[in-house]
Amino acid sequence: MTKLSVLMILAGFSLAVGGCDSDPMSEVGFRLPDGDAKNGREAFLYMQCNQCHTISGVELPVVPLADPPYVELGGKVSQVKTYGQLVTAIINPSHKLADGYAEELVSEDGESNMYVYNAHMTVQELIDLVAYLQPLYEVTPPQYYYRVYPY
Ligand code: HEC
Question: What is the pTM of this model?
């Protein structure tokens, strides 16, 4: 076999394995511009996200008459909360419900109780909100405790 045909076989193989994404709905190549965390905090407050959310370690004004089961954002998580997960949680909240809450507390018939803001929120507000929220998550790997036996 010539060097060239080996190369061509390798190239074909890598395309078959992962290089070529033929699903037209694939998110490959999807990337929003970076947002501004300070503006994100402002958006969070004027959109009254704090009507239903607390943020771990952040003091937020209480929205009058709000009495939901608060869903906490930020804080310790065992895996990184990605940009993609946060964007999805905001504009497609029923896609995956937050972990750690009884389903009937945060959703009805599989639909998240969160408002859908898509007809009102600008893309700028969305990316600013994500820029604000993302760094408030702290990844802490699960702790394993080993029993240490005396010699
Ligand atoms: C009417 C109540 C309500 C309001 C207002 C609300 N949310 Fe939510 N939100 C929820 C509930 C309930 C959940 C949990 C169910 C789910 O994952 O959709 C949630 C989940 C989330 C999550 C995912 C949390 C996780 O741990 O996976 C994010 C992020 C979020 N909301 C951001 C926002 C932002 C930003 C706003 C304001 C623009 C907002 N929410 C306004 C009720 C609300």
Answer: 0.84
